[in-house]
Amino acid sequence: MRKNSEKYRGRTLILEIAAVVLGLIFISPFYLVLINSLKSLKEILVDAASFPRLFHLENYRNVWSAINFPGAFWNSFLITVLSVVLIVLFSSMAAYQIVRRPTRFNSFVFLLLISAMIIPFQSLMLQLVRVTSLLELRGELYGVIACYLGFGMPLSVFLFHGFIKTVPIELEEAAKVDGSNPYGIYFRIVFPLLMPIVVTVIILNTLWIWNDYLLPVLVIGGNKELTTIPLAVTKFFGQYTKKWDMALAGLVMAVTPILIFFLTLQKYIVEGVTAGSVKG
Fold first, then answer.
1. Is-contact 159 149, C-beta < 8 A?
2. Who's near 274: CB < 8 A, 6+ residues apart?
3. For the CA atoms of 232, 234, 238, 241, what is the dihedral angle to 10 degrees?
4. Which of 6, 89, 214, 252 is a good FRET partner for 176, with 20 to 30 A between their CA atoms?
């Protein structure tokens, strides 16, 4: 018993040390971004890894006014919230229909959605620009949201599909006997039981949409009224000059809200995914 205990303790210690080292490696980029956001441009170019000699808090004030941060923040917030709400609503309803009515057509639709997950976004960029231009979606709020809804549904439907299988169908049958209509059964009985996976889908899509740059730059284009934070921060990267001091301060301001959001709800990601992987 002692030998096994000593081996276990020694192995655990090694794993803990390895985990700490890996954690420090992953945290190091955040450390560099944070400390350099408090430096002058000259100090960043001289030594990017050193601790700031003097905290230049004016970097944050300059960014606030230079990119109209409140406006960019509101655009990112509005696009993210509306897109995520629609993704959760339509994906959950689509997955529920596919699971409860396994017809050939529904199975085919599910196969198409799963297939869409393996298609790289870069291969669709040119077609996306053409389609959004033909449908007059470019430069419009509803155009960006529609694109996020389309690209966000495959993974979300897949996650909901696995979780809905664990919901007992007897609950729905009892509600049907009591006279509830299909919408009442879904929104009053089924949807409240999907909260673990709903939170997971919300977190994953919020992280993606909030930090996304490529899709907004293709769909929003030159519409400054809809500029999101990732688009606004690129203002500090010109052809001949790069304002690293202001750009890094802008990145810290952009990441802070979503980092707090993720740290607050991160435990629900594992809970939601694992709950949908076990049937019964």
1. no
2. none
3. 100
4. 89
Whether 49 is in a domain gets the answer no
Residues 155 and 212 grouped into a single domain = yes
Cα dihedral 73→77→80→82 (10° resolution): -140
pTM, two decimals, is 0.82
**Does 202 map to a domain?**
yes
- 157 vs 14 pLDDT, higher one: 157
Pair (118, 161) in one structural domain: yes
Q: What is the 3-state secondary structure (H, E, C) of 19-30?
A: HHHHHHHHHHHH
Residues 22, 64 within the same domain: no
Domain that holds residue 93: 59-277
Assess whether pLDDT exceeds 90 at residue 82. Answer: yes
**Cα gap 80→77, rounded to integer Å:** 5
How far apart, in Å, do the first and last CA atoms of the chain sit?
A: 37
261 and 215 within one domain: yes
- State both tokens at 17: 């040390």
Q: What is the CA radius of gyration of the chain?
A: 24
| Alpha-carbon torsion angle 209, 210, 214, 215, nearest 10 | 40
The tally of domains found in the chain comes to 2
Q: Is 216 exposed, middle or buried (0-12, 13-18, 19+ CB in 10 A)?
A: buried
* Each residue's pLDDT tens digit, 247-260: 888 888 888 888 88
Query: Whose CA is closest to 231, among 241, 217, 245?
Result: 217
User: Could you tell me if 102 and 14 lie in one domain?
Assistant: no
